[in-house]
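Weekly modeling sync, notes
Attendees: S.R. (lead), two postdocs, one rotation student

Agenda item 3: backlog of single-chain predictions. S.R. asked that every request posted to the team notebook include the full sequence so nobody has to chase files. The rotation student volunteered to paste the first one in as an example of the format we agreed on. Action items at the bottom.

Example entry:
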Amino acid sequence: MRIIELTKETRQNLLNDLLKRSPNNYGQYESTVNEIIENVKAKGDKAVFDYTAQFDKFNLSPENIRVTRAEIEEAYGRLDASLIEVLKHSAENIRAFHLKQLRNSWFDAKEDGTILGMKITPIGRAGVYVPGGKAAYPSSVLMNVIPAKVAGVGEIVMTTPPGADGRVNPGTLVAADIAGVDTIYKVGGAQAIAAMAFGTESIPKVDKITGPGNIFVALAKKAVYGYVSIDSIAGPSEIMVLADETANPRYVAADLLSQAEHDELASAILITTARNLAEQVNSEVQGFVEQLERKEIIQKSLDNYGYILVAENLQDAIDAVNEIASEHLEILTKNPFEVMTRIKNAGAIFLGEYASEPLGDYFAGPNHILPTNGTAKFFSPVNVDDFIKKSSIICYSKEALEKVHQEIELFAESEGLTAHANSVRVRFE
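Predicted structure, as returned to the notebook:
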């Protein structure tokens, strides 16, 4: 990994480098994605079936597009029993964490007849996209579906690409069953996003689409936003470790590589105040890379977006952390809780040497679908609020309105909206 002194210049150069990975910079694929969306919008099932034959080499039809109960039972038989129990335990933790996020409708009534409030309503139908093949992640199924179930969403549908034999990854099916998905469709790619956004003869239109995917899926979600809601336009995975001289270099190296193995565009960054730690971590990284199965992907990721930044002091390091706004942030310092209070921008924050990033990916309970590419400055992890709507409640008695009607009329007239003013005025003529 590159060891670089942290300065304003190197920080800005790093930011510019990381932002190159944003889905917003893949405009060359947008025309292809838009063509797929328009075809699905116009031709419905036929376009979905044609694209599935082209990309997934499976002949889809109205009879086999849905995953059957028998296929789900078969998936249970294909998974190790101990893994099924782990999935159930993880689901319990995720459900318990998200239950704490539930909010209730509220109303504030006053003696003058004024009633104000907020009505909380779950969305009607949620659509979850799940990648297939080597990128099948049962953990993401749990993270997408369980918050929606906790929120009270009426129906949850899932799309995931089939193999050439028409089968779906068994881990994906078991996780979906544990989480409570209502219907699973064997459709992947941009065509699946379009089908959920606009509806086809077989796949119903949803109100919101969540879930990770490749660049075509990300761009399709971006294109249909506004017709439906989406969680975010996800970029490549990233981890940042903020460490001082007390950190264990072997732990730091292992944690950096836990994200570098995702793909060649993943970023792994250490910011430290200790030059000695930087060199030790670099040495440990080299040793680990030779042992790990995905070493080619890891090495390309480190060559592209692997950095060790040495800061002059902790405040400079914290400033860089807040500016980069990483998806995952580990704090391995003498007092991680104190440092955490100074962090403004991060998707998920892991404190101490025993809270390694995979704990959040698989088991602890907080959601692992997180903002990437600096969007932690204004986006949050997927949560129960993503699956609810809020309606304002306003009720005034005649007496309450009479006290303020002239103020409202004045305000409306100042904006040139005399019909607004008249709507209030006629009630007191």
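Discussion: group reviewed the output briefly. The first strand starts at residue 2 and ends at 5.
Action items: rotation student to repeat for the remaining queue; S.R. to check formatting next week.
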